[in-house]
Specification:
The complex is a heterodimer of chains A (about 110) and B (about 250).
Chain A (H helix, E strand, L loop, with lengths): L1 H17 L4 E7 L2 E3 L2 E4 L5 E7 L5 E5 L4 E5 L3 E7 L5 E7 L7 E6 L1
Chain B lengths: L7 H6 L25 E12 L3 E13 L4 E12 L5 E12 L9 E11 L6 E13 L2 E13 L8 E13 L2 E13 L2 E2 L6 E15 L2 E12 L7 E10 L1
Classes of the chains: A alpha+beta (about 110), B mainly beta (about 250).
């Protein structure tokens, strides 16, 4: 019985360890973020995969999210945020701030 | 968990007795994150009044670069000004920081610091500082805590590995101005701590911020006013760091 409980415990913990965070895609193209508004669930950790399709690097920068991440050209990079309270969290592409801007809406 | 393997030789090196390493007034709190491709000119300074060593000011100027997504390296020159003496060149220092986890992926972000210092006074040997760096956040509050193991090699006197710590708490009010507190401490020999009244502990309020200048340029700063918490702690320390990122 003890062995069954231990196996069940490990199975449960393994499930927790491998529970995937909700995943979203964000694309950088022509120095713009697509989509410029990204809706994510509130109160949950979220994984955003940022794909930079431009020929130059871009830096995802958000004080609201407390994240700075440089994405090399023609590359992808993961970004983990949250859990976020419901609200709007603006971000910019620091290398092209005039055009690269967006907001994450947690709801 | 994706981790960078730290060379076993670095850990093994901690077992060799060496000259005790000293903290300084321009010490700053390490953060575990790395920004790939970031270049910075880093200026640090500090000044304290020590109960036995008197007044001491220190400053450093360095250049740093985010070599990869997980590795930041910086080289800087350090200067000292002891009470009654002129400013003198103190040491070269090479700092390497490794981001071990993706920010926010786990409850705590983890990094690792490796520093090597070569003092102008060669009798002091080489000083190495190693240690894990931790960061977590709760809403707008960010917490950092680091353990530092310091020791000297090839010094004229036999010493030991010393243990120190740093922590920092800040409320991210706005990009240009954040408020919080910092603390630094040294407890002595890692395997045989000094009596508490001989340890050094400093704590006090701090401010932080980043001013974007456009393009890839920004100025980042943090400063703290620390008071000593033990008889062997500097009475007052003012420390500051300004980084120009480009």
């Amino acid at each position: 019985m003890r062995h069954v409980l231990i196996i069940a415990l490990f199975a449960a913990l393994s499930g927790l360890a491998h529970a995937a965070d909700p995943e979203f895609a964000l694309t950088i193209r022509d120095h713009r973020f697509e989509p410029s508004e990204l809706r994510v669930p509130a109160n949950k950790k979220v994984k955003i995969v940022i794909e930079n399709q431009d020929a130059t690097a871009e830096e995802f920068d958000s004080h609201a999210l407390n994240r700075e991440k440089v994405i090399p050209p023609k590359a992808k990079a993961p970004l983990f945020i949250g859990p976020l309270k419901p609200g709007r969290y603006p971000f910019v592409g620091e290398f092209n701030e005039k055009t690269a801007k967006g907001v994450i809406i947690a709801e | 968990m994706e981790l960078i393997t730290i060379r076993v030789s670095l850990v093994a090196a901690l077992a060799i007795p060496t000259v005790a390493a000293a903290a300084g007034p321009s010490d700053y709190v390490f953060l575990p994150g790395v920004t790939y491709g970031e270049r910075e000119i880093d200026f640090k300074m500090g000044s304290w009044k020590h109960p036995t060593d008197g007044n001491l000011s220190a400053a450093s100027i360095g250049f740093g670069y985010g070599v990869t997504q997980r590795w930041f390296t910086e080289i800087y020159r350090k200067y000292e000004h002891a009470g009654g003496e002129g400013t003198r060149f103190d040491a070269w220092e090479w700092e390497n920081k490794f981001q071990l986890t993706e920010p926010g992926q786990y409850p705590v972000d983890v990094g690792f610091i490796v520093e090597v210092e070569r003092p102008q006074d060669h009798s002091e040997g080489y000083e190495t500082v190693l240690g894990p760096l931790f960061q977590t956040e709760f809403g707008k509050v960010q917490l950092n805590a680091n353990l530092l193991f310091a020791r000297r090699f090839r010094a004229s006197t036999e010493q030991h590995t010393e243990l120190g710590y740093q922590w920092q708490a800040k409320y991210r009010l706005m990009p240009e101005f954040e408020v919080g507190a910092q603390a630094f401490g040294e407890v002595g020999n890692v395997s045989h701590w000094d009596p508490s009244n001989q340890q050094s502990h400093r704590i006090g309020p701090a401010v932080f911020g980043k001013v974007a200048l456009g393009g890839r340029q920004a100025v980042r700063y943090n400063a703290a006013w620390l008071v000593g918490a033990t008889d062997n702690s500097p009475h007052h320390t003012f420390r500051a760091q300004v980084e120009y990122e480009f």
